[in-house]
Amino acid sequence: MKPLKTKVSITLDTDLIEVIKALAEQDDRSFSQYINLILKEYVKNRNAKDV
């Protein structure tokens, strides 16, 4: 069985990191979990617009 997640490394603006950390904390999620959630929603919304 292959892993459900893959570790990646990205570079983000410092101010963006601080905002995402604060939002993740408010939502009681880790930084990584919150970024994953944001990206899933973005892709879902983007695909809905393309249909």
Could you give a short description of this structure?
The chain has 51 residues and is mainly α.
Folded structure, characterized:
The mean pLDDT is 92. The chain is 65% helix and 0% strand. It is globular, with a radius of gyration of 13 Å. By secondary structure, it is mostly helical.
Number of strands: 0
Discrete helix count: 2
Outline the biggest β-sheet.
none
Strand content is under 5%
Terminal CA distance: 32 Å
SSE string, helix = H, strand = E?
Answer: HH
Runs with pLDDT <50, length 5+?
A: none
Q: Using the CA coordinates, give the radius of gyration.
A: 13 Å
Summarize the amount of helix as a percent range.
Answer: 55-70%
Report the principal-axis shape: globular
Structural class: mainly alpha
- The overall average pLDDT, rounded, is 92
Q: How are the elements arranged and paired?
A:
Elements: H1 14-26, H2 31-50
Helix pairs in contact: 1-2
Quick tags:
mainly alpha
